[in-house]
From TrEMBL:
PROSITE patterns named in the record: FE_B12_PBP (PS50983)
Signal peptide: 1-24
Organism of derivation: Longimonas halophila
InterPro entries: ABC_Transporter_SBP (IPR050902), ABC_transptr_periplasmic_BD (IPR002491)
Signal among keywords: yes
Protein name, UniProt field: Hemin ABC transporter substrate-binding protein
Record keywords: Signal
Amino acid sequence: MQRIPLFLLSTALLLLGSASTAAAQDTEAERILPLGGSVTEIVYALGEGERVVGVDASSVYPEAATEKPDVGYYRQLSAEGVLSLNPALILALEGTGPPAVLDQLRSADVRVETIADEPTVEGAKQKIRRVAELLGRADAGDELIAEMERQLSEARTLREEADATPHVLFIYARGSGTMNVAGSGTSAEAMIELAGAENALTGIDGFKPLTAEAVVEAEPDVILMLTRGLDSVGGVEGVLEQPGIELTPAGENCRIVAMDDLLLLGFGPRLGTAVRALTEKLHPQLEAASASAE
C-alpha cells in the first residue's frame, strides 16, 4: 500500500478544517440583521435570536426583538445606520429600501438576501423556508411550517361551523386625516378570505382613500382595523364618527374589530393563530362557542 506523506495528510486536514469552519461561519456565526417584522419573527421562532444584532421599526414581536438596536423603518433605511451594526447577513423583506441603500450595503461587502413577501398561505411557508435555509435551520423551518399548517387546519374546521359569510371592510388609519380602505390584491383581503368572509369593497385594487360614498355602497357587516389604527382615531367612537360609517350595517350594530398589526398582516409563523383569531372575531357565534368551551 502506498503511504501518503505526513505533510500532505496534514495539509489536507488543515484545508478540510478551514472549509468546515467557513461553512459553519456562513450559517452559524453570522451577525444577522432581519428587516421586516415577519422576517424578524421567523428568525426568533427558529431560535436564532441571539445572532440578531439589530432590527427595524416594524419588528415588534417577540418582545426580545424590541430590545435590539433599531435602524428605522425597513423601507426608509440609511446605509450608515445599518453599517454601524456591522451585520454579516441582512435578511431583507421584499420592499426593503431605498434600492440605492441596498446597493451601498452590497458595495460594503455585506451579504443582502431578499425574502419574498406574498400574502398567501404558500407565501408564508416559502418565507419561513427561505429564512430557515439561509440560517442553516431547514429542519426547524419544517417544524414551524408543520405547526402553522396544523393551526390553519383547526381554523378551517372552525370556519366550516359558521352560518354566514360576513362582508368586511378593512380600514387602514393613522389618524382621522389618513384613512384608506383595502381592495383587491391586499394582504388585508387575503386575511379576510382566509377567515371565511368576503371583502366588502369590490372593483378596487390596492388601497384607496376612504369616502362616505364608498363606505355606504360597500355595506359592510364588519369593519376591520389594526389596533394602532383604531387607537389613532379615538377608538370605536372615533370610527363611528367617520363619514358614512353609521349608515352601514357595521356602524348600526357597532361591529368594529381590531387586531395587532403584525399578527394580522405579517403572514409569518403566527399565520395560523391569526386566521383562527380573526375567524372567531368575524363570526360572533364561533367566538361565543369558543369562549364557552374554555
